[in-house]
Amino acid sequence: MIDLLGYGAFFLSTALIFAIITLGLNLQWGLTGLFNVGIAGFVAIGAYTSALLTTPDTADRIGGFGWPILAGWLGAMVLTAAAAAFTGFATLRLKSDYLAITTFGVAVLVQLVTLNAIGLTGGPFGVAFIPRPFAGLQGNPVAFNFVNLAIIAAVTLACYLALERLSRSPWGRVLRALREDERAAVSLGKSARSYRIQAFAVGGAVMGLAGAVQAHFIGFIAPDNYLPTLTFQVWAMLMVGGSGSNRGAVMGALVVWAVWIGAGWVTSALIPTGWQARAASLQIVAIGVMLCLILLWRPQGFFGPRNGRGME
Amino acid sequence: MSLQFLLDGLISGAMIGLGAIGVTLTYSILRFSNFAHGDLMAWGAYAALVAVGALGAIAGGPMAIGALSFGLPLILSTLFAMVFTAGLALLLDWLLFARLRARGQAIIVVMASFGASMALRNLLEFLFSSSPAYYSRALQVAQPIGSGIRITPDQVALLVMTAALVTGMHLFLTRSQRGREMRAYSQNPALARVTGIDVARVVRATWVIGAALAAAAGVMVGTLVQIRPLMGLDLLLPMFAAAILGGIGSVPGAVLAGLIIGLSEAAAVMFVGAEWRAAVAFVILMSVLLVKPTGLFGVTER
Q1: Which residue in A62, A147, A203, B111 is a FRET match for A286, CA 20 to 30 A apart?
Q2: B115 contacts A292? CB cut-off 8 A
Q3: Within a domain: residue A295?
Q4: Cβ–Cβ gap B233/A228 under 8 Å
């Protein structure tokens, strides 16, 4: 029973971290219509920034400043926002495809840096000993899991409320206006490019925060955590939930993560050991097909507001 | 300093350029950046692998021609792979892209191609596992051709094949009626439609050409390097960078830019370190976007 509770807390924590990333994507895509295929890269920037700022001093690696965790999270948000702003600055005066291609490149580049800049990122072995909040409780796993869940839930709630408020603010209205009818919005004197860069940067900051929160939740990060599959999962979450709706983003994250974990259990129970690596790829095929089917038949997702416009 | 890196760059540049032709045509005619293009390449490579296995079993060996590692079975298999991949692209278009294109939101098509790319790539991993495969185990001896450069017979043959395909492609687009229709449609779809160009035929031709060249590039990578499910994904960023550097819609531009990127990558491997190779395409992409987003030969709208 206790084990089950602990596992439930762990599962929810992971799902809520995904929900934070999905909220960031919803600001970029759902509200502003900016296509980001490099989510994994932005999450990784946040995770590594916070890890480098907060870990104790290490001999063979730059960083290890021993900052407090909250300062690490703030640093993660600032640096990820800067990276997103630069990406947007370079591409948002061009057709939307260029942003997609460039974000894809960002993810490739970040993966390369995490693997190869060993003096900064620890290379393939990653960064360990990332301080965990309330580490003193680690002796009592259930309490520790629940404290972590509470922290992550609080961060998710804060992001949710902030983004809800932002999307109803005049700033959010401009973004929606730009998405619906760019020419009309521009004729009212709104700079399309500048607003889009801002939205992309804020969305990036949220993703960076999620990466940082996850790094401190697990206590260890490595390049393998930030492969294209992550980007893909987050997209599936937003599309299932319903893009344009923050509630949908959170619900989509919970549902898709539950399906993902469930499918993992089923494959490990039913499929012989030698075939499990292959079965894992079939799991991704299924999600890819699902994403395409949703695009074809239910572009507004499943959990958005009933009369929400979604992305159509 | 050995000049060998120039030849290595030329070879990988030829692969990138061949793939980038499909990217640039899809972008300028179907108006979306196809994230599944690299996976068409990988599917082509695996289709040829299956065919070469079957043909080799019938013929009783690779029937290597002269000093080459391959013979008639691989040549026939390549043709089969080109047809197969073209069929796969048409099927994907019919199932997915055409329906979304009809709704008129280009970026949704891009997202669908991203989903399709994940599905296609992992399906390959499921069918063939992630360990690398080869068309032939024959060892190739590199011959010196002066200035410290060595080249294998396979590399010569495939460079000749690339040159022939690119020239043929260029002649097709500039001299044939179908090619002229494609260019007209890419420059002004509305006007092309008014003048009675069959749009469905242009779309089909674009997929067939792009996919067939992707398959050829896939076989080339498979012959000279190795066949892996991730081979297309690894080439996707260089191919996009080549299409943009060359100027969207320009076939000679895509090929030239592919060679530039291949040579830059080889130079980076030589002077910076092999592990940073994949960053080259990103650096070139960002520089083009910041300095001259229309690329070398681009004339289309941004």
Answers
A1: A203
A2: yes
A3: no
A4: yes
Answer yes or no: is A267 within a domain.
no
Higher pLDDT among residues B212 and A286, named by residue: B212
Which of A135, A125, A105, A106 minimizes the C-alpha distance to A44? A106
The answer to whether the CB atoms of A235 and B111 lie below 8 A apart is yes
Residue A116: half-sphere exposure toward Cβ, Cα within 13 Å: 14
Q: What is the extent of the structural domain holding A206?
A: 2-227
Chain A touched by B292 (CB under 8 Å): no
Q: Chain B closest CA to A215's CA: distance in Å?
A: 25
Q: What is the DSSP letter of A137?
A: G
Q: pLDDT of A1-24, one tens digit each? A: 677 888 888 899 999 999 999 999
- The residues in B 155-174 lying below 8 A from A, measured between CB atoms, are none
Query: What tokens were used for A17?
Result: 């971290």
Summarised one tens digit per residue, pLDDT across range A47-88 is: 999 999 998 877 677 777 888 999 999 999 999 999 999 999
Q: Is residue A43 part of a domain?
A: yes
Residue type, A33: G
Q: Identify the CA nearest to B248 among candidates B182, B184, B294.
A: B294
pLDDT tens digits along B57-113:
887 776 777 778 788 889 999 999 999 999 999 999 999 999 998 887 778 888 899
CB-nearest partner of A281 from B115, B122, B285 = B122
CA distance B16 to A110: 22
Cβ pair B281:A105 closer than 8 A: yes
CA–CA dist A215, A203 (Å, integer): 19
* Number of domains chain A contains: 1
Q: Which residues contact A275 (CB under 8 A, 6 or more apart)?
A: none
Domains of chain B (ranges; CATH) run: 4-291 (1.10.3470)
Q: A27 CB contacts (<8 Å, ≥6 apart)?
A: A163, A166, A167, A199, A202, A203, A206
**Inter-chain touch B244–A98, beta carbons under 8 Å:** yes
Residue type, B20: A
